[in-house]
Amino acid sequence: MYYKHLFINLKADCQAAILEFIGTTFFLLFGLGGIQAATGEKLASSGMTSDVEQVLYISLCMGFSLLVSAWLFFRITGGLFNPEVALALLLVGAIKPIRFVLFVIAQLVGSIVASALVRVLTSQNLSVGTFLQQDINLAQGVFIEMFITCALVLSVLMLAAEKHQATAFAPVGIGLTLFACHLFAVYYTGASMNSARSFGPAVIAGFYSDHWVYWVGPILGSLLGAAFYGTMKYIHYGKLNPGQDATNDLEAAHVTEEVRRNESLQFWRLEIGSAGFGGG
Asked: Are the CB atoms for 39 and 127 separated by under 8 Å?
């Protein structure tokens, strides 16, 4: 009976997965295409381009590509484009298991197609793969990927999955988060944060020995981000700083007063309950 329930929305899930494949291809075609252009320009200029300029260019390409792509597909599929984001949404109950599996398949295939398109459309060998710098060991690589993926997952959960007045602008915050994470990690690990993003180029150009880092690190980051989000929901984080979604001071004051009143009621219920238990 439970298994039948899983497949109730199979048609919609398949349609969403096809569009998620298109969205992932769109996102990575321009993101990876920008990286290909950056490395190609550096080779053409005999290495005259500054490494800092290249890092900034790559970070902008990936961050802006996600911002635009997520905004286009946000109301269609959610604009995930990332197995680790899909995993976090599964863990918090935002998507169902069947849609999760179909989305992950769509994202992996979309990454392969985007990587193949970048290779075909440019005249150089594909140079958009992720790998660790020589002075970065495997443990460092895993933890860097874990923490930056956690940041990306939290931005999705807090800005998109959590509904509020600024939800429509969630792609902006998520794209800027990806941009910031790239500024930190692109030199050290390539700043994957997305197993599909690393998998597609590896299928086309070949796998590095440390490819597993780009599965273990992001998955751990997804688990960490989902656990942190779940903890915040458990403690009802909205009462810690109430009124942040208010449109004016009067509304903010009303919301704050309502939260305090509810806290007082809860306190007195606990006190009365304790007194009743003791007297019994």
From this structure: yes
Q: Are 32 and 122 in contact (CB under 8 A)?
A: no
The pLDDT tens digits of the residues spanning 110-137 come to 999 999 999 999 988 999 999 999 999 9
What pTM was estimated for this model as a whole?
Answer: 0.88
Which of 127, 243, 225, 236 lies closest to 174, judged by CA? 225
Q: Quote the distance between the C-alpha of residue 227 and its chain's center.
A: 14
| Residue 274 confidence (pLDDT) above 60 | no
Count of beta carbons in the 10 Å neighbourhood of residue 262: 12
Half-sphere exposure of 130 (CA within 13 A, CB side): 30
Angle, helices 195-205 vs 10-44, to 10°: value is: 60
Please determine, for residue 66, whether its predicted confidence score (pLDDT) is greater than 80.
yes
Long-range contacts of 85-89 (CB under 8 A, 24+ apart): 85/152, 85/153, 85/156, 85/194, 85/222, 87/219, 87/222, 87/223, 87/226, 88/153, 88/156, 88/157, 88/222, 88/225, 88/226, 88/229, 89/156, 89/157, 89/161
Q: What whole-number distance in Å separates Cα of residue 46 and Cα of residue 42?
A: 6
